[in-house]
Amino acid sequence: MSGESTPEQELERELLSRTALGVFRLNGQFLAVSEDLARPAGLTAAWWQVVGAVLHEPLPVAGIARAMGITRQSVQRVADLLVTKGLAEYAPNPAHRRAKLLRPTPAGRDAVRKIEPGHAALAARLGAELGEEGFAEAVRVLERLSEALEAVAEPARVPEP
């Protein structure tokens, strides 16, 4: 009987699968929209994401990766490209000699500023489509889902048979 599952377990599996597929689709949609918004400013979605992460305060690459939930290596590649393109620069980190801080250059800030009108227009269209309360609820649900997944997936292990 170890191979059988209860209706509750079946429902949980279905809900997890539907959630994952929905989030993957949503991620693809956000990436496509972000690419469209960033392109006229000379950025990619990934470049915008990394520059945006350090607009308010410089951060080490590992800190950016943690905040965005992606690998340090992928952030490092983008950060190095941004520095090469003159959109960001590395600065000394008083808290850690080897982990330099990434901060935007004036050109990086200007590029992000060029995105703001399109970003604001998209926010207004989404707000109109969802309604203010619906939009706020969508944010709460996504944040709660992220917190719950973080709490239960440390690391996700496959149980032994």
From TrEMBL:
Span of domain HTH marR-type: 13-147
Q: Which InterPro entries match?
A: HTH_MarR-typ, MarR/SlyA-like, WH-like_DNA-bd_sf, WH_DNA-bd_sf
Pfam family name, one: MarR_2
The organism encoding this protein is: Streptomyces enissocaesilis
Question: Protein name, please?
Answer: MarR family transcriptional regulator
